User: Fold this.
Amino acid sequence: MSRRDETIFALSSGALPSGVAVVRLSGPESGAAVTALVGQWPEPRRAALRTLRAGDGSVIDRGLVLWLPGPASFTGEDMAEFQVHGGPAVVAALLARLADLPRLRAAEPGEFTRRAFLAGRIDLAEAEGLADLVAAETEAQRRQAIRQSGGALSRQAEAWRTRIVTMRALIEAELDFPDEDDVPGSVSDAVWSEAAALLAEIETALADAGRGERLRRGYEVVLTGPPNAGKSSLLNALARRDAAIVTEEPGTTRDLIEVRLDLDGLPVILVDSAGLRDAAGRVEQEGIRRARERAAAADLVLWLSPADAPVEPERPASGVPLLVLRTKCDLTAGRPDDRSAGVPPAEGDGSGALGWGPAGGGDRGGDRAGAGMGLPVSAATGEGLDRLRAEIVARAGVALGRGEDPLITRARHREALTAAADGLRRALSFDTLPLELRAEDLRAAGDAIGRITGRVGVEDLLDVIFGQFCIGK
Ligand SMILES: Nc1nc2c(c(=O)[nH]1)N(C=O)[C@@H](CNc1ccc(C(=O)N[C@@H](CCC(=O)O)C(=O)O)cc1)CN2
Ligand SMILES: Nc1nc2c(ncn2[C@@H]2O[C@H](COP(=O)(O)OP(=O)(O)OP(=O)(O)O)[C@@H](O)[C@H]2O)c(=O)[nH]1
Ligand SMILES: [Mg+2]
Assistant:
């Protein structure tokens, strides 16, 4: 897909109809397209109101036209924009007109940004940051994306890579001019202490518990419990919409139902699932299998159990934290024998603000299952929902690294830095090997870091990375 002599166009604004729609072009024919559609040339980088015409001279729309000559443009190429009324037929007529012009074609996903990368206007990590910015649904995601698109990771990666380049240069010098003036070995001693310091920095960046990646994905909370416990009702109450079917029949939910929430700027994915029980038909059994599978991979499992029933949580196989909720507390409130409507124990359990036990993810040992435990909630009255939200926000804040600004936001970055750390570790540990071989490990470490910004061999990655963008970006 390196047909860079072609001029690409796409609708870069969102779903139609919209107030205004932006159609962008990039490539050598952008200027010719402006001439073809509007005749009178707009001043560079100034919006001009023009009549856009079809091939037969009929009017498509009146809209703002921008002529953005390269290389000082987003892609570095000549660009143009048509900002028209956002009606589906207006946009269809405009796109059809552009498609009729010679050497113009519709852009592929991410192709504008890819061209910006190929022109050296942005690097690969910054391009990924732009993709994340477009995908960001919450404030915390937006902040992370703005930092990365502004070069936070790129600058750090380049600084690290430069240090490795310097180390290699010192080693080369020692190899080329041994024992000139210097105490033999003194240069490489300095190199190895620098390598150890660099390794420590990279290890610190890696030891972030995956917070940057988790923030991109969202904090996943799976609702489980026996059938009819009120899982779907609670999901609907938290989502403030009727996302899942609720009936008095046990076994209502079979499919996993996801809703994405913005809780205090944090992306939280709530997943409703089939109630867990043994006696169930084929369809429900499959639902239960999926429920268990999803719970095992969750960041947090909510075990829902009606306030008047014993709590017998089924722990996910993995060490996922588990929080017990006592549902339908409106039905038991005020009963003399009710111990669940009281204030839950306020002791911390190490992972969240409050602990309503039993232990989640091995953070506490004792199984204190009994009628008196768990956070009382009611989907019917809303009781307990604020505390539940606060608890989820506290835990998500820790897991997603609120206020921590991790550098790594993708598996790709982690793999590169892990490879770099491995290279540094090899170079440091084989101190009996010839200097040439240890320098080779340093080179591998530098190359691994170089892949983050795309300075080193990334051709094979480009289709994967830019293919995930939306069209028009
Ligand atoms: N209408 C419109 N809005 C948009 C964009 C766009 O393409 N069109 N963007 C696109 O994604 C984003 C803005 N990003 C941009 C980044 C660089 C340049 C650019 O032309 N840079 C030149 C000139 C800078 C200047 O004039 O100061 C340069 O860096 O040399 C333009 C937009 C968001 N808003
Ligand atoms: N009074 C009261 N009834 C509730 C509450 N939450 C749920 N219910 C009722 O309990 C029944 C079951 O609710 P669901 O939300 O479908 O329960 P579920 O856990 O999703 O059930 P399955 O999908 O079958 O596993 C329905 O009749 C709900 O109206 C509540 O907070 N208070
Ligand atoms: Mg349900």
Q: What stands out?
A: Residues 227-233, 246-248, 250-253, 274-275, 327-328, 330-331, 378-380 surround guanosine-5'-triphosphate (ligand 2) (CB under 6 Å). Residues 261 and 268 are 5 Å apart (CA to CA).
